[in-house]
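Re: the request from the purification team.
They wanted to know what the chain is likely to look like in 3D before they choose a buffer screen. I agreed to run a prediction and write the result into the notebook, where they can find it.
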Amino acid sequence: MAEMELAIEGDDQAVHRKQGRRLEVLEAFARDHRGEGARFADLLLEVQLRRVRLFIAQDRRADAVSEARAAQRTLEVRRGRRAVTPTFLYAEAVQNLALAGADWPVQLVLRMAGLRADGARGARALKVLLAKDSAYGLEVRYLARTFAVSPDADTRGPLAYSAELHRRFPANPQLAFDHAVDLLEAKKPAEAAAALAEPLARLTAQPDTWSARIRAKLYWAAGRAALDEGKRHEAERLAERAAREAPPDVRDRVRSLKEALAR
């Protein structure tokens, strides 16, 4: 998953290049084998949607909108065929839930660009895919955690999905962070601190492991948990660690923690 790879590796440009090469290989494979069945042809849909995400990460907004339009056209044609593959369900879920879940100003721009979303359709596809054993298993659960906050999704809450993912991959720092955030939202700071214990122990032993982004996020979440537990000095220490590491996209979290400590 792109977000997890970026969080752990840290070198955005290197990760983007790697993702671009993977998509080129997958697209070539799909085009070579699309005559052999829907499961191969549908891989072109996956390529289009992953390119949208890549273009957004690269701040190539016009390219992202153009690729999203192409994916929408492909989906519209694809819905007229009877075969239902895991890739088709994945595409329905991602395209519809991502667009439907955008903030209303973004949705307005997307509608002006000719992009439409049906959150209920996306939720139905996601639920069917969750019940299947497919290559998308881990990513589908990550998507379910992301979109479960929407009433339209009609799935379990985000905490249930982050708990499952963290249980399966306890050493993964991004999944530990996600689960800790959900526990903090559920007013369970002690459990959040426990979820962060393993990655924080690794950071104590190897302070430069992973990217600055994930280190800052882990320290911030641990600081929030400490503050909520009344451990003020520990929260201050962790807030300072987070501030030293934080890239721009994490600074607002760190600032809010420091403001809470200053009260």
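For the purification team: Residues 12-33 form the longest helix (22 residues).
Please add any questions underneath this entry.
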